[in-house]
Amino acid sequence: MSIKTILRNFAYVHFVLIIVVLCGAVNATEAMADDTKPELIGLSIENDIIYLDEYMKAYITTNTFTDKIGISYDNVSDDIFETWTDDYGISGDTKIWEVEIKMEYDGKQKIVFWAGDGEGWDSAKETYIDVEEERPVSDIPQNVRADATEYSVTVRWDVVDSATSYYVILNGNRKKTDRNVYIFKDLEPDTEYTYAVRSNNSSGSSEYSPIGTIRTVDSLGPDVPQNVSARWVADRITIRWDEVEDADDYTVSFDGETYNTEDTSYVFEDITEDRDYEYAVCANNGLGSSRYSKTKTIDKDDISSPDFPEDIRISVRDGSITIRWSEVYGADDYTVILNDDEFDTDRCVHILKDLKEGKEYEYGVRANNLGGAGEFSPLEKFKIDDDGEFMETKYLELSDWALEHVKNIDENGMITDELLDELLEEPEDVLSRAEFCEMLVQLYESYAEENNTAVEYDPSKVKDFIDLDDLDVRTKDSILKANALGIVNGMSDTEFDPSTAITREMMAVMLRNTSRAMYGEGPETSIGDWVMDFEDINLISNWAVDSVRFTNALGILEGDGKDFLPKYKANHEMGLTLLDRSFTTFLDLYSQ
């Protein structure tokens, strides 16, 4: 073989190889291009049967290169008559399209779904839909029944699958509802009512169910609850109302259902749907039920801010002051106010910093949520004195000689916080006979349970005073108990005179009587001789002399160094001081 022939054959082979390589590259490019084309992967229809002029919902799965979905009635892309470009979600490497198509022709319909991009339409799937000319009219409701109270009739029935709503009729009064229950309210007791129900859908209404008859109950029950209100905080709706005299319990109608309670409030939890809720309340007892209160509505626009925090307490440790409070339901966070400054926190505690000596502070806490900022708790005060020590404001108005005594009463719980706070509001106000009775009865009660020498309270010994009716229950009960225990007498057998200011010699008598009520007369014999050397001794009433000697000898009730001042009117802080001295002195006497 010649050299020319070898070279010619080599050139030919080399040319063929180049052609093969180029063809392979073209095919690879075409394959790559096919991978990026729109592709309709899956198709599903929500309903097999669709009604004329109603919408059919379709779910289409495509690759992510699909930019649009279209439909036609045949396999020609030029006939596409509706297109969607944004109705999809991404799931991995696919798009899930959700589209609605209004069916405008009845009969068996062929529908072709197309997947496309900016270059045109590249992939299609077809399906067939049965389109009925008209949706059948809804069925007549079955199992229609009713029950009644004095002022209401509740009608119920079985759900009709094809219904979108119902009409309920009671004595010609027609109401519409989308539920299978309806409550007619504000009816007359002992009255006969007729009722029936029909169902509705887009094709019309069914016939009414057979007419039923029911009679409301004859009413001998309590009055209608007043001031019924609702409050929506977070996911909780609370219904409240005023107590009704002679009511045994209450029925709350809420969102078409009824609930019973003996309280004057009812809490509905896990309220998640943003819609209207109707509510009303009636009262019940053994004789019957009242009418329901006027039906009211609450919705998300009425959502409330949280209640203000309670159980607010302040503590001092290592020079720092900490405010704590109980968690408030529905609160997202809290705001602490300190004079003119506000501090936000999502916890139920806040540490006060950079407080100045000699300055008075006022503080409170509020809770906040999406419904807004709640009210601040009742503001309290405290002071940092000149030595940098913390002092509660309720002590600020006290005289120096009374301060430690009042603190001791507070720390030992000799009297209730309620009574102590009332007395400290105006510590220099004149002390009344009624107030001192309350203080001494609470002192007696703090020891009577554990003291076997204490006089037993006998209610039969109480006198029938006619001037106590205007007092609150707590004060009246204290006066009657003090009288039965022998701590205090009335100004007569029928009048106590509770508001009269108490004098020092009256206090001496009541303190000695309290000692006897707590420990008997034994401790008095161990005191020894009682000596008094007051220049105004002749001003002491005869009925008070022995009691003045007793309280003075024990260091409970002293004079001013010269006079005893028996007719001098005592004030709140003096009464508290004597209470603390008596607490300590009586305890020492009893332990001997």
Mean pLDDT: 85
Structural class: alpha+beta
- The number of helical elements comes to 8
Taking the alpha carbons of the first and last residues, their distance comes to 145 Å
> Poorly predicted ranges (pLDDT <50, ≥5 residues)?
3-7, 10-23, 28-33
Shape: elongated
The level of helicity is 10-25%
What profile does the largest beta sheet have? 6 strands, antiparallel
The tally of strands reads 34
Summary, kept brief:
The protein has 592 residues and is α+β, with helices and mostly antiparallel strands.
Describe the protein:
- There is one protein chain.
- The chain is an alpha+beta fold and 592 residues long.
- It has six domains: 1-35; 40-132, SoxY domain (Immunoglobulin-like, Sandwich); 145-215, Sandwich (Immunoglobulin-like); 229-302, Sandwich (Immunoglobulin-like); 313-393, Immunoglobulins (Immunoglobulin-like, Sandwich), CATH 2.60.40.10; 400-591, no CATH class.
- 22% of the residues lie in helices and 32% in strands.
- Strands 28, 29, 31, 32, 33 and 34 form a six-stranded antiparallel sheet that branches. Strands 2-9-8-4-5 form a five-stranded mixed sheet, with no helix packed on it. Strands 12, 13, 15, 16 and 17 form a five-stranded antiparallel sheet that branches.
- Helix 4 (433-448) runs parallel beside helix 6 (504-519), helix 6 crosses helix 7 and helix 6 packs parallel to helix 8.
- The longest helix has 33 residues, at 3-35.
- The chain is elongated.
- Mean pLDDT is 85; it is low at 3-7, 10-23 and 28-33.
